[in-house]
Amino acid sequence: MNHEQILIAPSILASDFAAFGAEARRAQDDGADWIHLDVMDGHFVDNISFGPAAVAAIAKHTTLPLDVHLMIQRPDHFLPRFLAAGARHVLVHVEPAAQHDVRQTLAAIRAAGCLAGLVINPPTPFAALEPYWGQFDTLLVMTVNPGFGGQAFLPETMEKVAAARAQRTARGLQFHIQVDGGINAETAPLAREHGANVFVAGTSVFHAPDMAAAIRALR
């Protein structure tokens, strides 16, 4: 795993919901590395997006890895359905509102041959990650409070990004540091400076006049 490689993961949540397949192909053709899918169940966050059927439909239209972020109350229960739908990376939350055994869920994702991701929200203490070092392939630091797209980037979350990079070095680990929320050509360099290498971008990519140029700007 090369955690120095810059990877751009456009968030399909910001795309045209009536044209998921075409939007995924457009992102692929314009230089994306992954396609990010925000799954919300109306319980863990106050919004509902889409489920395994949408993931399966999108998987038919792109060869890029599907980076599936489960903002749901029972990620362990629904995990097999998302794996069957074509998820290649699965990210789950460390917060107690996600009612699962985090270790077991991460292990199940890896056992399926997928990259296992752990997510931490802005209000959550960094210490919540302590039991799980070495058990995930990606750490997603949310740079907004999750639930809705188009929010403003929270600069204070950079403390977690920097702390994650320090822990990775101190423990001799290999994992991506991913950021999501308010990521654009202005905020991405700040996140990169603090240690991020995977950038989830929704509005700034899908709503750009030129998606390819927006992705190049993020790099």
The poorly predicted ranges are: none
Q: What is the tally of beta strands?
A: 8
Name of the CATH first level: Alpha Beta
Q: Kindly report the name of the CATH homologous superfamily.
A: Aldolase class I
> So, CATH architecture?
Alpha-Beta Barrel
| Silhouette | globular
The rounded Rg comes to 16 Å
Keywords for this entry:
single chain; 219 residues; alpha/beta; TIM Barrel; eight-stranded parallel β-sheet; 8 strands; 19% strand
Secondary-structure map:
Elements: E1 7-10, H1 20-29, E2 35-40, H2 52-59, E3 66-71, H3 75-85, E4 89-93, H4 102-111, E5 115-120, E6 138-142, H5 158-171, E7 176-180, H6 187-194, E8 198-201, H7 203-206, H8 211-218
Parallel strand pairs: 1-8, 2-3, 3-4, 4-5, 5-6, 6-7, 7-8
Helix pairs in contact: 2-3
Q: What would you note in describing this structure?
A:
The chain is α/β, with parallel strands linked by helices and 219 residues long. The chain has a single domain (7-218), classed as Aldolase class I (TIM Barrel). The protein has eight helices and eight strands, in the order βαβαβαβαββαβαβαα. The chain has helices at residues 20-29, 52-59, 75-85, 102-111, 158-171, 187-194, 203-206, 211-218, and strands spanning 7-10, 35-40, 66-71, 89-93, 115-120, 138-142, 176-180, 198-201. The chain has an eight-stranded parallel β-sheet. Helix 2 (52-59) runs parallel beside helix 3. It is globular. The model has no long low-confidence stretch (mean pLDDT 96).
